[in-house]
Amino acid sequence: MDAVKIRHNDRSFAILQVEKVGVLYMLTNRREVLKKSTLVAGLMLQSLGYMRSANAYQQNAFEAKTILDVYKNLGLSLPAESKQISLITPEIAENGSVVQVAANTSFGNIKRWIFMVEKNPVPLIAIFNMTDDMAPAVTLRCKFAQTSEFIAVAQLTDGKVHFAKKEVKVTLGGCGG
Known about the structure:
This protein has helices at 30-62, 67-74; strands at 3-8, 14-20, 23-27, 80-81, 85-88, 92-93, 99-105, 110-117, 124-129, 137-142, 148-156, 161-170. The chain is α+β, with helices and mostly antiparallel strands.
């Protein structure tokens, strides 16, 4: 069990002692506390930079104007159509600003899902990076500018890329049109 003691020395600096299994950690003065907290803050900021650079390659894909540009910007080969991907979409969406869509697959080794709406000003809707612990099913809400194909692309861990598409008819566009 941890024991935490706080006491003040003659210079009115707080001393924090944590005793854990015979090990004594002491922060003896404010200067030491500031040094260690600055180090921790620097490490946190550095890790934030790594996360930004890791996802920077996807930013180009979200700026693409066509589906072929999305594939190119993500470094994907052209996918093959697959019956193992099932899509659940409404046949007719009364309002294109909120359309619920879902994708599921029998592939067991999904690396990531990529969702697109063909005739949107920016066709790429979402990218979901998957792990082995996750079920290969995703449900999301997205916007449709007009009647268009909803495309779900499954990238597998072995590098193969498969897709399925389904048309959604929109009576009132959701992207300002």
